[in-house]
Amino acid sequence: MYLERINQPNDIKKIEEKNLPLLAEEIRRFLIDKISTTGGHLASNLGVVELTMALHLAFELPEDKIVWDVGHQAYTHKLLTGRREGFDELRKYGGMSGFPKRRESPCDCFNTGHSSTSISAGLGLVQARELLGGYNKVISVIGDGALTGGMAYEALNNASRLESNFIIVLNDNNMSISENVGGMSTYLSELRTADAYTGLKTGVYNSLSKIPVYGDKMIEQIRKTKSGLKQLIIPGMFFEEMGITYLGPVDGHNVEQMVKIFHEAEKLENGVLVHVITKKGKGYAPAERHPARFHGAEPFDIKTGLPTNKRTKSNWTDVFSTVMRKLGDRDELVVAVTAAMPDGTGLKRFRNMFPDRFFDVGIAEEHAVTFAAGLAAAGLKPVVAVYSSFLQRAYDQILHDVCIQNLHVVFAVDRAGVVGSDGETHQGIFDLSYLSSIPNMTIMAPKNKWELSDMMKFAVNYDRPIALRYPRGTAYDGLREYRHPIEYGKSEILFEESDIALLAVGNMVETALVLRERIKDIGYNCSLVNARFVKPLDEQMVREISADHKLLVTLEENVKSGGFGERVLDLVNSEHLNTSVLITALPDEYVEHGNVDILKRESGIDQETLFKKILSEYVGL
Ligand SMILES: Cc1ncc(C[n+]2csc(CCOP(=O)(O)OP(=O)(O)O)c2C)c(N)n1
Ligand SMILES: CC(=O)[C@@H](O)[C@H](O)COP(=O)(O)O
Ligand SMILES: [Mg+2]
C-alpha cells in the first residue's frame, strides 16, 4: 500500500517512480470508496490524480504555493498533504472541508469555492513574494470551465506585465459541470489537437535558425505575424500575445511528462501557462460516462453508480424546472439564462425544449445579469436562474444594469438559505440583504412548491426587476389548501389569532407551522403570516397585526443584518406601533459545512431553539 506511506507533505517523493502508477490507482480507489459513502466532488477529483501527484513531485510544499480554482478538485492534494483520515468526515459538521482551507493545513495557501479566482490570488501571492520574500513558486490551477469567468481574464491581463515566475496550470478536461461553452472552450479544443503542430513549430524553427543572420529575423517575423499560419505554428497564441508563455498541451495522466514541463516552467521569469489535458471522472466508468452527474455526487452504489438514497419527493429545483417548461410553452418571450449551471438550476429541460431561448453564458454571473438586462431592454422576459451565493458576484450588475433602468429581469435564486456540506462559500444566506438594499427590486419567497409555481408565473407577468428565492432540497408540500392568488406586496395570513404573531419568510413557514402548534399547546394564541414579499414589505399587514399581538416574531433563513426582520422592526419603531418584535435570523457569521439541520441548530434557527427564544421573549414582556 503506497497511499499508507503518505502521511505528510512531500512523502510522495519517497515513492519510487515505477510505483507511481500504483499510487495513482490506490488514490482513485480510495476516493471512489470514500465519496460513495460521504458524497462529494468525485469526477473532477478523479481527473486530477496524476496532475496533483506531478505538482507535489515537482514542487516543495508548503514553501511552494498551489492555489486551486474553485477548490472542488483538491482531494488528492489533501491526501498528499497528510489528510487521509479526514475523508471519513468529509464535508460533515466539524469534519474536513471539501475545499482548500488555510485553517486546515499550511499546504492550503488560499481558500476557494467560487470560480475563477485562482489567477488573481496567485498573482497577489507572487507580487507579495517579490516584496516580502519568504516563499518560492506560486502555481494557480484553473479548469477550462473556470477559465470562462471574467476574473480569470482580468488577472491574465494583469499578469502579462509580470517579470517574475508565476505558473498557471490550465486543467482542461473539456467540461465545466456540464459541457463547457463559449469561444475559449472552442479555442482550447483546437489547442488540444495542436500537439501535431508543436513538432511543426520546432521543425520550422530549427530549419530557420540554421540560416545565417536572416534565419533569426524570420523567426522573429513569424512570431510577430498575426496570421492563421502563426496560429498553427505557435499553439497558445492567445496567451503568448497576452505576454504569458504557453507550454503544452501535455498529457495530464502522464506524471513524468508533467514533472518535466513544470520544471521547464519554473525557469521562466514571467507568467507561464501549462496546458494540461485530463479526463473528468477518469478511472471510474460511470463518472467517465456521466461526468456531470458525478461532479457533485450524493452517496452512491459503487457497482451501479446509482444514488444510495432514492428521492421520493421533488425538490425546489424540480418544481422550478417544471414551471419554466410550462412558462416557456405559454410565452415565447420567456428566455432562460444560466451561468454554467443548467443541471443544478433545473434549466436543462427548458434547454431541451427551447434551445433557441436558452443561454448558458459560462461561469460568468456578472455577464449573465447584464446580458439579461440587454435581453429585457429589447422586450424579452429573461429568467436568470442562479444560486444565491454565486449571484453575490453580480451585485453591481443587478443595481447598475437592471434596477436603475427598472428592467424586467426575473431572478430565480436557488440554493437560498443554508445549503449544507459545501460550507461557508456556498451558503445562500445573504441574498435578502443584498437584494433588499437595491431600489426597484421586488423580492418574494414561496412557502411551498405550489407557491413557487404561482410566484414564477407572477414574476414573468410583472414588468420590473423581481427575484424569488428558494432553498436547496426537498420542496415543502404542506399547506396545499392555502393558495390565495399572489397580490403584489401582499402577505398571506394563514392563521389569525392574537398574542403572538409569527411572520415567516419562504421555507421558514414550514418551521413556523410547527412552532405555532407548540405555542398553542401551552395555551397561547398564535397567528401565522406567510410574508410572501420581503420587498416591498406588507406594511399594512404589520400595522394591523401590531394592534392585537403583543409580540411579532420574524423568521427567515438569511443573516439578520439587512434582512426581513430588520425591515419589520424599522417600521414598528418608526411608526411607534404598540408591539414588540423578536427577529430570528442567522447571526453575523459565516456558516461552515455540515448537515443542514445541525447547522441550523448551531445558528439558532432550528425549531427547538426558536421555540425557547419565543417563549422566553413573550413571558418577559
Ligand atoms: C462563481 C461560481 N459560479 C458557479 C460555480 C459552480 N461551479 C463549481 S465547479 C464548476 C465547473 C468548473 O469547471 P472546471 O473549472 O473546468 O473544473 P472541472 O470540474 O471540470 O475540473 C462550476 C460551474 C462556482 N463554484 N462559482
Ligand atoms: C463546487 C461547486 O460550486 C458546485 O459543484 C456546487 O458544489 C454544487 O452545489 P449543488 O450540489 O448544490 O448543486
Ligand atoms: Mg473542466
From TrEMBL:
Entry annotated with the keyword Magnesium: yes
The EC number(s) this enzyme carries: 2.2.1.7
Residue positions binding Mg(2+): 144, 173
The entry's keywords: Isoprene biosynthesis, Magnesium, Metal-binding, Thiamine biosynthesis, Thiamine pyrophosphate, Transferase
Catalytic activity as recorded in UniProt: D-glyceraldehyde 3-phosphate + pyruvate + H(+) = 1-deoxy-D-xylulose 5-phosphate + CO2
Residues given in the record as thiamine diphosphate binding sites: 72, 113-115, 145-146, 173, 284, 365
Details of cofactor binding: Binds 1 Mg(2+) ion per subunit.
Quaternary structure and partners: Homodimer.
Protein name per Swiss-Prot or TrEMBL: 1-deoxy-D-xylulose-5-phosphate synthase
Originating species: Diplocloster modestus
Gene: dxs
